[in-house]
Amino acid sequence: MTAYRYRALNPGGKLVKGVLEGDSERQVRSQLRGQKLRPVEVVVANRQAANQPRFSLSLFQPRISVAELAMVTRQLATLVQSNLPLDECLQAAAEQSRKARTKGLLLQVRSRVSEGHTLAYAMGEFPLVFDEMFRAMVTAGEHAGFLGPVLEQLADYNEQRQYTAQKMKMAMIYPFILVGVAISVVVALMVFVVPELIGIFAHSDRELPLLTRALIATSDFSRNYALWVLVAVVGLVIVARRWLRLPARRKRWHGVLLKLPGVSRLVIAMDTARFASTLSILMASGVPLLESLRIAGQVLTNLVLRADSAVVAERVEEGSSLHRALRESGHFPPMMVHMVASGEASGELETMLQRSATNQERELEMTMGTMMSLLEPLLVVFMGAMVLMIVMAILLPIFDLNTMVR
Asked: Domain span at residue 308?
């Protein structure tokens, strides 16, 4: 059976959309009429994407969130371990989904599986949802006959990704709100409040204090050029993003990040933790070491570290041990290198890689927590200092006037 996307009119004349399975377009239309719907359009589910121009193909392929992917993977793992046929597992998971996009995706995968293709092959038609690591693990699980446990590992991995990303976002919410409020308050004072208060000194023959003159100049600049500054900042961001589209330029920028104190530590910790975790899961799923290194290298967002991982894979292929290749690269954390060496010596490389990833993630979480704890009071102090300067710039001329009166 094939998955079809449809658009139809309900008895009230409202347009509805959805996905149905059927042997032919005619059968799907009959099903719709049986549901008292009048078909407007019925097409094969993946035909719409196939008919789009190549440059916009990625815009029309289905996408689902990491949380949704983790839930679907968990459901499939449970169903597969219940010894149900794979196409029935996909059908059941599709029926459980409340989102039409996810349901359509699973039904399209089920259609390919029903045609005789492997699950990994069917998932390969949706690379924006099922990345290379996901498909490699599914392939290994299908070949070795333990697809259920592999899907369980993938569900754990995606849930951990979602949890880490959510925790990072939650940690950044308060500082961003505080920065936004601070900037808004200062701009409002400079544009609306300060000109009214300083106006009383504008016609004075007495020379104003330096701080007051600086405040007046800043206020005038903010009123006359604030919009142009905002446009310039947005323009610079757009130009920088376009400039970084070329891999060579982006790699140079990533190299600069690795040389910045503080920033380099965070970048390396985030990327190498993801690398170690991915490599551990791939090897535990039965993927060969060289293939695991190649796939795990793709999860590195820093292009310099990604190039280093490719060199590591080449050295391992030439006969070097993994820990020696990682140490010679110069970018992977020493603790990770030592744990990999211990894992190679004891024959528990997958376990030691996972421990290394866990330790790095814990250290990264503590570092981020410390930075956020320091940033919040610093922002409060900065905001207070700005307001204090504005108040002092206004009060100093008033003090001078009081002195003249006496």
From this structure: 209-405
How far is it, in rounded angstroms, from Cα 252 to Cα 261? Answer: 17
Handedness of CA 112, 116, 119, 122 (dihedral sign): negative
Write the DSSP assignment of 6-51 as a string of letters.
Answer: EEEE-TTS-EEEEEEEESSHHHHHHHHHHTT-EEEEEEETTHHHHT
CA angle 350, 354, 360 (to 5 degrees): 145
- What is the Cα–Cα distance from 210 to 228, expressed in whole angstroms? 26
CB atoms < 10 A from the CB of 237, how many? 10
Q: Is residue 38 part of a domain?
A: yes
- Encode pLDDT of 38-61 as tens digits: 777 777 765 443 334 333 344 445
pLDDT of residue 63: 67
Burial class (CB in 10 A: 0-12, 13-18, 19+), 25: middle
Percent helix, percent strand, percent coil in the chain, to nearest 5: 75, 5, 20
Is 137 part of a structural domain of the chain?
no
Q: Are 151 and 75 in contact (CB under 8 A)?
A: no
Assess contact for 125 and 112: CB atoms under 8 A.
yes
Q: Which amino acid is at 375?
A: L
Q: Return the structure tokens found at 72.
A: 């679907």
According to DSSP, residue 208 is labeled: P
Q: Which residues contact 277 (CB under 8 A, 6 or more apart)?
A: 157, 160, 353, 354, 357, 361
**Three-state SS at 375:** helix
Tell me the sheet residues that pair with 6.
18, 42
Q: Round the average pLDDT of the chain to a whole number and report it.
A: 80
Number of domains in the chain: 2
Whether 108 is covered by a domain: the verdict is no
398 assigned to some structural domain: yes
Distance CA 148, CA 225 (A): 62
Contact yes or no for 8/39 (Cβ under 8 A):
yes
pLDDT exceeds 80 at position 84: yes
Provide the Cα torsion 160, 165, 167, 170; round to 10°: -160
